[in-house]
Amino acid sequence: MSASQKALLVCGILSSLLYVATDIFAALQYRGYSYAAQGVSELNAVGAPTRPLTLPLFTLDNVLLAAFGVCLWRLAGRNRALRFTGALLVADAVVGQMGLQFFNMDPRVAGRTPRTAMHEMVTGVEVLVILSAIGFGAAALGKPFRLYSIATLLAVLACGGLTFWIVETRSSLLPWIGVTERINIYGYMLWKLTLAVALLRVRDAAIVADPQGVVDDPRSRERALWQGVR
Q1: Per-residue model confidence as pLDDT tens digits over 158-216
Q2: 230 domain-assigned
Q3: How many domains, in total, are found in the chain?
Q4: 42 assigned to some structural domain
Q5: For a tag site, which of 18, 31, 33, 65 has the least CB within 10 Å?
Q6: Residues 16 and 193 sit within 8 Å (Cβ to Cβ)
Q7: Is residue 93 in some structural domain?
């Protein structure tokens, strides 16, 4: 694998780390903000004091994510699942940036305004893109990553469904919505990071591009694709 390919794969790691670091740091800078009870989007809401901080950092995160997705597309070769995964990660970066730049929500105290409703719609589209990326990613590499991806997909669906239910029913769990949302988001961030690390540990890019044809023996092929990842 070339140095340029490895550098772009590292973008996937940096993207995940930057997102989490920005979320934590911005929450600490926002006086009166509750990490447990408020969502990430509120750090970038209209009039939020942390928006000047989060906007450029989350924008950089989306740039890094797009670079990672392009790298997956270029590495994919005959590996269609990996190609679709790369395309969906680029789509996630684009949709996420649209929500960040043009469809950010109003402050929670304003209620469910048309702007906030539009933000929720864009977020819904992004969630579908993310779920699809994890789904295709599950089929892109070997069995260990497939099982991990399926577990992540189930966790994201469960936490996403719980978060939606809490909001819609105004449940007594509402003071914990920031926690359920972040479990959901951080699970996806960890999945991206794991995917990048797994690919960085594959020595031969040709194995990634054509995992079914490079090595004749299935067990040897699995070992080659997952050198050091187990």
Answers
A1: 887 777 777 767 666 667 778 888 998 999 999 999 999 989 887 555 556 555 544 33
A2: no
A3: 1
A4: yes
A5: 31
A6: yes
A7: yes
Nearest to 152 by CA among 124, 199, 120, 193: 193
Distances (CA, A) of 11 to 20, 121, 135, 193, 202: 14, 28, 21, 9, 16
Phi/psi class of residue 47: alpha, beta or left (left: φ > 0; alpha: ψ in -120 to 50)?
Answer: left
- Residues 14 and 17: their CA atoms lie apart, in Å, by 5
CA 57, distance to chain mean position in Å, is 15
pTM: 0.84
17/194 Cα distance (integer angstroms): 12
Residue 84 lies in a domain: yes
Range of the domain at 90: 3-225
